[in-house]
Design a protein that fits this description.
Helix content: over 70%
Shape: globular
Low-confidence stretches: 1-24
Mean pLDDT: 90
Structural class: mainly alpha
Radius of gyration: 19 Å
Distance between the termini: 23 Å
Length: 287
């Protein structure tokens, strides 16, 4: 059973961090706040909250044998509250930034504070919010399929640029990794609260999560490519090339690594909280 897929708006543009020499300088809280603001994290976390509540409703029949209980919806909404999530993001970003060169992060901040950087984030957030509508999601998937089937060179080039964005930041593998970590944390929460995973050993949980890997990878790709193609529709091919170049550069790689560490830890904590809430509902406890 798949409980959660990790996908995070700009944040979708993160990758697992490459080994790099950490800058021993302590990251500044002001820098943390500025970077989060430049990435429009407040808006991102509002959308993530809506996605989480919708996802919770989808898995309710598997968990509870019926429609989503009100207590379940409320618990998930609380876990993904945008205000508390922003505090958790900032708290996680501060130590994560010590794993990257501070000069690279300053360059990344400068990039996303430009009109070009803000436009990219606006496009991603608008598309991600639109994809909350299942009809829009279906249309985006069809548009991507049509693009792939179109024999015109311009269409083939566009599709390749979208693939290059994914490849430049290792989006699929990093999102699958985060999703698997989140699903493992969910099982841990279920077991701790006495849900149906209570009898599972750690090895059982790991085996279950590993068994989901192929489905998670397919689901991630199935959502990711249509999302990116839809989000970047207004951008020219040259603008996409510039964005790919930034993503491959040290500043883009440093930012991606920091975001991966931050969101991975935050997502695991939220998933564990979901497991705790689900397990308590299963055994009739207050949550």
């Amino acid at each position: 059973m798949r409980f959660l897929i990790g996908a995070f708006a700009i944040g979708l543009l993160f990758a697992a961090p490459n080994p790099a020499q950490a800058n021993p300088a302590q990251a500044s809280p002001d820098m943390v706040r500025s970077l989060g603001d430049a990435l429009q994290m407040d808006k991102t976390l509002v959308i993530m909250s809506r996605e989480a509540v919708a996802n919770a409703a989808e898995v309710a029949p598997d968990l509870f044998g019926g429609a989503s209980p009100a207590d379940w919806t409320d618990a998930v909404a609380k876990l993904f509250n945008p205000v508390t999530a922003r505090a958790a993001f900032d708290a996680g970003l501060l130590p994560a930034m010590t794993s990257a060169n501070q000069g690279d992060l300053e360059q990344a901040l400068a990039y996303f504070e430009t009109p070009t950087g803000q436009r990219l984030i606006d496009l991603e957030l608008s598309a991600r919010e639109a994809l909350l509508d299942t009809d829009v999601e279906a249309a985006a998937k069809q548009s991507w399929a049509d693009l792939l089937a179109d024999p015109l060179p311009a269409s083939a080039l566009r599709a390749q640029l979208i693939r290059d964005i994914v490849g430049a930041t290792d989006l699929i593998e990093s999102n699958v990794s985060s999703a698997m970590n989140g699903n493992f944390a969910f099982f841990q929460g279920l077991a701790e609260s006495g849900g149906f995973a209570a009898e599972m050993t750690q090895d059982d949980m790991l085996a279950e999560v590993r068994g989901q890997e192929a489905e998670l990878r397919a689901d991630t790709a199935d959502w990711l490519y249509p999302f990116l193609a839809m989000a970047y529709t207004p951008l020219s091919d040259d603008e996409l090339r510039d964005y790919i170049a930034f993503s491959k550069a040290p500043a883009g790689q440093a930012l991606n690594g920091v975001l991966f560490l931050t969101f991975d830890e935050m997502g695991a904590a939220q998933s564990r909280g979901m497991g705790l809430a689900a397990g308590r509902l299963m055994v009739g406890q207050d949550i």
